[in-house]
Structures are given as structure tokens and as C-alpha cells.
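Session log. Operator J.P. requested a structure for one protein chain; no other inputs attached. Running the standard single-chain path with C-alpha cell output.
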Amino acid sequence: MSLSFAPDHLEIERRIEALLFAAAAPLSREELARRLPEGADVSGALTALQERYKGRGVELDSVAGRYRFRTAEDLGFLMTEEREEPRRLSKAALETLAIIAYHQPCTRAEIESVRGVSLSKGTLDVLLEMGFVRLRGRRRTPGRPVTYGTADRFLEHFGLAGLYDLPGVQEMKAAGLLDLSMPVGFEVPDPSLSRDEDGEELLPGMDADTPEFAQDFIGEGGES
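Structure written below.
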């Protein structure tokens, strides 16, 4: 024959302490009582816990008849955290970034052709400043225009292992990034880009044997 013993007052305090610590929201006496043995002195245990935690780093607080543990008021300053808010990209910047990602290396004129509107210089400046885009080189065409491509920061921000992980056209349209006036001849590639013999990714419009841009890469001096 087994004997069962009713928990003593200290055990009730421990159980209430555990319940309040784990609770996602403050609990009332009634809610606590439903989780404790019948006849448990919930009010007495709560009073004892309030005294025990008085002046500690965390205190037992009562709000609208419900109980919770919270940081002591005089220590609230320790919980303050200064965080830099992530810079939000404008719709124009997101569209520009999507075009560069799928059609790199591309020039400003090509980006404008896809979007159907002139591109503000500030848009590319923002993408360069944030590290999403980098200068690729100069195209071997009249005027030798600067070309742009994505940088490693772009992959890191969007959680991509490589450019072959880019979402397909339907996903981009669903995100509102390809709701554009697409010029003739512009195609969004399949996410699984082809690779060369060494396993390197071949970007749209690029050929392993015939690079599209001159090898005299632009230095930190910027574009001319």
C-alpha cells in the first residue's frame, strides 16, 4: 500500500515559482490553483514569494490580479539595448537589385531599359554603399560603360548559398520585384544556373570562354 503526502508550504511555493517563471503571460490565483493540489494555500505562497524576492534582481509583481516575475525597476537600464535599425530599400532599389542579380553583369542603361524609367544615381549608390552590389568592370562596347554585379553581402542578406539559388521568375513576380516592363530579349534565368568545368557558376549573358567585360577592373576611384 503506497502512501501519498500532501506537499508542504515550501513545495507549493516552489511549484508556483516554477509556473510563473515558465508562463508566457501573468497568471491569476485561480489559474495557479488549477495546477496545484486541492487545498493548496496559493495566496499564502504568493505572499511569501513576494517577500522572498523583494529587493532582488527580479521581483514578483501583481498586475490586475495576475502575477508575474519582472526585472526590478531600478535595473531596467541594464535591459536597454542600442541597435542599428536595418536600412530599408526602396521599391526602385529592390527592382534594380533584382535586375542586376538576374542579368549581371549589366550597365546602367540596361537596368533603365528593363525598368522602363531613368535610374537615379542615388539608387545605385545606396546598393553599393550597403555592399549588395559591386563594380564588375567596363563593357567592351562604345563608351566602355561600367557594369554592375551582386556582391557576397547580397547572398548573405538573402540567405543564398550562391547565385544558382536565386528564386525563379514566379517567386520574383509574387514578391513584386518583376512587375516591370520587360524589354524584348530579356529573360529571367532558371535558378539552377549552368556551371563550367571547374564548378564555377556561369552568370546570365556570360560565357566561360568569352568574358563580356574588359579586364581592367575599376579601383576605388569609382566610375568616370
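Operator note: The chain is about 35% helix and 10% strand.
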